[in-house]
Write a structure and sequence with these properties.
Blueprint: H1 2-11, E1 21-32, E2 35-49, H2 54-67, H3 69-74, E3 79-88
Parallel strand pairs: 2-3
Antiparallel strand pairs: 1-2
Amino acid sequence: MLGTLNGALEVRGVTMEPGAIRATVKGTSELQGKIPVLTAVEIHYRLRTPRADREKVDRALKTHQAKCPTAQSLAGAVEVSWTADRDEF
């Protein structure tokens, strides 16, 4: 999802410094029978973006999960969620 978000920001012309977008991911597995099965993925983004691009960043965040091939492949089998902390300059 990070790649999809980064691409959505690029398409919208949001210019960021190197290292201005990062993600931390946490996966949750549960035993089904004796087999551990991935049931949830939580992504937490940290973004540093220009204040002038706030609306563009908001749109990219709002739509990126629906356009992410990995998130769509997991849909229905694994709960995918995200949060974001933003620093604007």
